[in-house]
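Entry for the shared binder. Reason: the reviewer on the internal report wants the predicted structure included alongside the sequence.
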Amino acid sequence: MLKKGSKLYSILTGTCPKCRKESMYLDQNPLHLTKIFKMHENCSHCGLKYQIEPAFFYGAMYVSYGLNVGIGIAAFVISYVLLNSSLKAAFISIIVCLIILFPFVLRWSRNIYINMFVSYDPDFQK
């Protein structure tokens, strides 16, 4: 499932979508909030420029919106339906989940967005 050539591997690990050999981020830990947006300019292995065009990652906001909606729905269903909590507690659980998962969703949305435009090249050797 997490083979090196799969898009899921690149999305979950934050590696270069073309060669999958280097992290796109200067600090791989998304919990370091001051460095969460810091990315390498290019991949040192294949030379892929991560910022494909100016303001490229603005499109990741749409992906982030979709991920946050999915997380909110999942938190509501688990809290309200499965755990039989009150409606107020269910909405509080949504807010708590979104706050806790914010740094991960931000990174995942960028990873998903760049993987929509760049494919893995298994023949790339350097």
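Summary line for the report: The chain has three helices and no strands.
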